[in-house]
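S1.2 Input.
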Amino acid sequence: MPRRTDRKHGVLLLDTREHTPEHERAVHRKLAEHLAALLLTEVVEQRSDEHDSLYYLPTTTLIDPLRYQALGIVSIADFFGGLVSQPYMATKAISHPLPAGATFPVGWSDDFARRASDALLKGYTVFSVADALAAAPLLLRDGPLRLKPVRATAGRGQTVIDDIDQLETELRRMDPDELALWGLVLEENLGDVETYSVGQALVAGIICSYYGVQHLTRDHQGETVYGGSDLVLVRGDYDELLQLELEDPLRLAITQARTYEQAAFAAFPGFLASRRNYDVARGVTADGHLRSGVLEQSWRIGGASSAELLALRAFADDPALQRVRASTHEVFDDSALPADATLFYQGDDREVGRICKYARIRDYDHP
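S1.3 Output.
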C-alpha cells in the first residue's frame, strides 16, 4: 500500500474524449472507486486546490507531457494509463512501418518498427490516400488485407480488402485531415484468429502482469465486437508470468508483447504508462501459414481494466497471494449475474442499447 508521504488527496476522472457514452461513464466511475480503495483515498469531482496531490483516471492515452505537468502528472504514480508526446503514438498506427517514401507526421521514427519487428504482423501505416494506394499492392499480392482505422476500438470499423477498387471506395469515405494526423493501418488479414491479451498494471506500488484470451460477441446491430476476457494474473513482472507452465503460442504472445513494450520505451522519449495492454493475434495467412503478432497497444483504461483492478485489490488485501484468475464480461442483453460478479454497469444505454458489464475474480487454485 502507498506510504503516507505518497498519499493522494483523491482520484479524479479525467475525460479527454469529445464524447463518452453513458455506460462507459458509469464504468469509469466504478473503476475510479476501485482505484481510490487501493490508494486509501476517495473519488473527487474536481480539483479544488492546485496544491492537491491527485491521482488521475484518464479516458484516453494522454498526449503532450508538458500539458499535463500542470496537473501534477509527472510519473506513473500519478495516473492510471499512458502518456505520449505525439497523437499517432497513442494508437495502433505505431504497429507498422511506413512504406518507402511515404509522408509522415512530426515525431515519427522508424526506430520503433525496427526494434519491434519480431513482434509485428506484416503491414504498413500510412498518413495519406496516395501512400495507402502505394502500400496496398505490396500486401494484396499475398492475399486480402485488413483496413484498420486507428482510433476505432473493440474491433469496430475494420474492413477486409480484396482489391484496389474496393480500397479506393473505402478511402473516399475518409477525412484527409484525420488521416494526416492519426494515420491508417493496412495489415495482412488472418483467418481462424485467436486473440491473446497480455499486459501489466501498477497502482499503489503493486504490480500485476497477466495473460488471457479475448471473447467476441455481437452487439444489437449484429456487429462482432469485444465481449470480454479470461485472464490469469500474477503478482510481479513479465518474468513471473513466464515462469508459469504455458503452451508455446501463449509464451510467444507474452514475449512479443514484451518486445513491443520495450521498443516503445526505447523509441518514444517521455513515454509513461502505469497501465499497459497488448492484443496479440495468432491466425492463418492466406497461404496457410501460422502467424503471430501484436495488433495494437492500449495505454489507457480498457476492457480488461475491471479485472486488473480487482486483482490488484486482492493482492493488496493478501500479501501472500501470488496469482488469481479473473474474467470480464460484456453482454448485450439481459444477463443473470453470477454470485461472485462485481457489477460495473447494467442498463439501457441510449447509444448501444441494453448492455451489462461485470467482472469476476477467483483464487487461482479454486476456479
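S1.4 Remarks. Residues 87 and 125 are 14 Å apart (CA to CA).
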